[in-house]
Design brief:
Low-confidence stretches of chain A: none
Strand order of the largest sheet of chain B: 6-7-8-3-9-10
Number of strands of chain B: 20
Number of strands of chain A: 2
Shape of chain B: globular
Strand order of the largest sheet of chain A: 1-2
Number of helices of chain A: 13
CATH class of chain A: Mainly Alpha
Shape of chain A: globular
CATH topology of chain A: MetI-like fold
Largest interface: A-B, 19 and 26 residues
Order of helices and strands of chain A: HEEHHHHHHHHHHHH
Distance between the termini of chain B: 36 Å
CATH topology of the largest domain in chain B: Rossmann fold
Radius of gyration of chain A: 26 Å
Helix content of chain A: over 70%
CATH class of the largest domain in chain B: Alpha Beta
Order of helices and strands of chain B: HEEEHEEEHHHEHEHEEHHEEEEEEEEEE
Mean pLDDT of chain B: 91
Strand content of chain A: under 5%
Number of helices of chain B: 9
CATH architecture of the largest domain in chain B: 3-Layer(aba) Sandwich
Number of domains of chain B: 2
Structural class of chain B: alpha+beta
Oligomer: heterodimer
Chain lengths: 308, 365
């Protein structure tokens, strides 16, 4: 009898422990994602005023002692009315998409090469991929300014070679933004791709070769389709931060490089229009989250179908 | 048979080094057309390397390989009329059973209708009709093995190489699959080369076996020949159970060697034309060729030794006894349990062991 009681006690304790472990990530998300999100969302529903903080309060105490809630969707409407925002969102998507594509095209061969190299070399190469992280991101983007500017390294070198007789205009263009993004986000592409490619069973390629596939056919038929999860992971890791990127377009881009991160910064710090800035942030989040949720749902569906 | 059929696969002086390690050391071998040939060896004996050289997945350091009279030595795997079934099958995980089997034909550029027809016929051959849309991770071990077999057979190769084809299957399934594999071999008439570490598998399946040790072949022959006439202690010990008993040469004259074998009660005569320089020899005797009785053998002519049962194992169909002879040697005996009665010989029983002189083999090192 007492043995049974002890057992139940133990299982309750075990259950509590299990809930606690599962709760940790939820608490984390609640504190550091959901709570800030709710605050930003609340601000996006306010009007800007000249005050401290610079927006109308959510709760209002009326003269008769009651409470009222003040919300407005003007900020969101404003985003749709002024075509600047639409164009900027679109341009951000375009810039991030092209940057992601180039990162993939450059990152895939690098990841493949590392995954195929012998073990000791592999570790050194991985270290080399990660080493730039040890230097401040801002510093690295600044140094690109030095490389790209009119009398910078690239122009100096090309002039010296005699390939060009006038310096190229590189800095403060979209090209500079692409270079900066591809450079900065390359490790985020290489690492998940490497983790995927290194797991590939070489015997699958041998089997393909045995069955009549040339080397490149084996790559197309076996390596590439099996690396799709790595490609998706890498692309998301690059695309998502790239779309909201502020520092790179601000430092390397021209005045006409429209990116939503810059608009957000300007609304927030220059116009001091917190509600509109918040609305911009919310729309950006929806723009990113909705396709990803849809995509993951579809993928989960496919896996469960395959398992059935 | 023409010489091409007699020497369908010709391996001439093949060696393969991996750095300092010599995996295959100057090996020669001829395999007949349509033969079911096994290469049997412990892990690290070089058998898989040799198979991979045949498939073109390894380039030999030396020597050449001819198949049906054509030099294959430097031909790429995708150009060889050879297919391999990998040990863990190496099925393409992202392709359906149909696409896995059809892969070789697609690479040949065959039209869709012919592919459909051939794959269906192959699915019927390996008894997997109705499985074409499954993915490899939805198959059992036995089913995966059949898909792998179908995939490697679909191009109708001149030679099929099988790397440990049964190693991943459980024992019951292994036995039935062995017979199915033999049926398929008979039906298609393709030359099979099997690499295995499982001597039972090699014995059941093969027309001929090559036993490999440290990159060499130590003996090549039919299962029966190798089992009953092993050339060396290693081969005798590797294939099945055997008693290896020390003996000293006491006399050697033309055609006859007399040895003194303490374990078997003294002098034994062997007809042997080859003279031996060594003084120490080994007398080998298979456990199933020893008779064990509780009473003295009736035939006085027959040699016998007395001993005590030290240990015994009951396996249902047979029992295995370890008997300590009066001279202090251990001899293993296996006895068919022909009668449905209780075990009559047990621990500590005094027993008499006897044998036919023909069963004894005299082996050098």
């Amino acid at each position: 009898m007492s043995g049974l009681l002890v057992k139940t006690n133990n299982s309750i304790r075990e259950n509590l422990w299990r809930y606690f472990i599962v709760a940790i990530p939820y608490i984390w998300l609640l504190l550091f994602f959901l709570a800030p999100f709710v605050i930003v969302f609340k601000i996006s529903l306010a009007d800007p005023i000249i005050a401290q903080p610079p927006f109308t309060p959510f709760f209002n105490e009326s003269s008769d002692g009651g409470f009222s809630i003040y919300t407005t969707f003007d900020n969101f409407l404003y985003l749709f009315q002024d075509s600047l925002y639409f164009v900027t969102y679109l341009n951000s998507v375009k810039l991030a998409f092209i940057a992601t594509l180039f990162t993939l095209l450059i990152g895939y061969p690098i990841a493949y090469g590392i995954a195929r190299s012998p073990q000791p070399t592999r570790n050194i190469l991985l270290l080399l991929v990660v080493i730039p992280f040890w230097i401040s991101f801002l510093l690295r983007v600044y140094s690109w300014m030095g490389i790209l500017k009119t009398n910078g390294l690239i122009n100096g070198f090309l002039l010296w070679l005699g390939v060009i007789d006038q310096p190229l205009e590189l800095l403060y263009t979209d090209t500079a933004v692409y270079i900066g993004m591809v450079y900065s986000y390359l490790p985020y592409m290489i690492l998940p791709l490497y983790a995927n490619l290194v797991k590939l069973d070489i015997r699958l390629l041998e089997a393909a070769s045995d069955l009549g596939a040339k080397k490149w056919q084996g790559f197309i038929d076996v390596t590439l389709p099996l690396s799709i999860p790595g490609i998706i992971a890498g692309c998301l890791l690059v695309f998502i931060p790239a779309i909201g990127e502020y520092v790179i377009p601000a430092l390397l881009g021209g005045a006409d490089t429209l990116m939503i991160g810059r608009v957000l910064f300007d609304e927030f710090f220059l116009n001091r229009d917190w509600p509109v800035a918040s609305a911009v942030a919310i729309v950006l989040l929806l723009l990113l989250v909705l396709p990803i949720v849809y995509f993951q749902k579809k993928q989960a569906q496919e896996t469960s179908e395959a398992a059935a | 048979m023409t010489s091409n059929e007699e020497n369908f696969i010709e391996i001439k002086g093949i060696s393969k080094n991996f750095g300092e390690v010599v995996a295959v050391d100057n090996v020669d071998l001829a395999i007949k057309k349509g033969e079911l040939f096994s290469i049997l060896g412990a892990s690290g004996s070089g058998k898989t390397t040799l198979l991979r050289i045949l498939a073109g997945l390894e380039i030999p350091s030396q020597g050449s390989i001819l198949i049906d009279g054509v030099d294959m030595t430097s031909m790429a795997p995708y150009d060889r009329p050879v297919n391999i079934m990998f040990q863990n099958y190496a099925l393409f995980p992202h392709m359906s059973v149909f696409d896995n089997i059809a892969y070789g034909l697609k690479k040949e550029g065959m039209d869709k209708e012919s592919i459909q027809e051939k794959v269906e016929r192959m699915l019927a051959l390996v008894k997997l009709e109705g499985y074409e849309n499954r993915k490899p991770n939805q198959l059992s071990g036995g089913q995966s093995q059949r898909v792998a077999l179908a995939r490697s057979l679909i191009k109708e190769p001149k030679v099929l190489l099988l790397d440990e084809p049964m190693a991943a299957l459980d024992k019951k399934l292994r036995q039935s699959t062995q017979f199915e594999l033999m049926d398929i071999h008979d039906e298609l008439g393709i030359t099979f080369v099997i690499v295995t570490h499982d001597q039972e598998e090699a014995m059941t399946l093969s027309d001929r076996i090559a036993i490999m040790e440290e990159g060499h072949f130590v003996q090549i022959g039919s299962p029966n020949l190798i089992y009953e006439n092993p050339k060396s202690k290693f081969v005798a010990d590797f294939l099945g159970n055997i008693n290896l008993l020390e003996a000293k040469i006491t006399e050697q004259n033309d055609g006859q060697i007399v040895v003194d074998c303490a374990a078997l009660g003294g002098e034994l005569k062997f007809n042997q034309t080859e003279q031996s320089n060594a003084l120490e020899m080994t007398v080998a005797l298979r456990p199933e060729k020893v008779m064990i009785e509780k009473s003295l053998p009736t035939n006085d002519e027959q040699k016998h030794v007395k001993g005590i049962v030290e240990d015994f194992g009951y396996f249902g169909n047979l029992s295995i006894y370890r008997v300590r002879t009066e001279s202090g040697h251990i001899i293993q005996v296996s006895k068919q349990n022909r009668d449905r009665v209780e075990q009559s010989i047990k621990w500590e029983d005094e027993v008499y062991l006897s044998w036919d002189n023909d069963s004894l083999m005299l082996l050098g090192e």
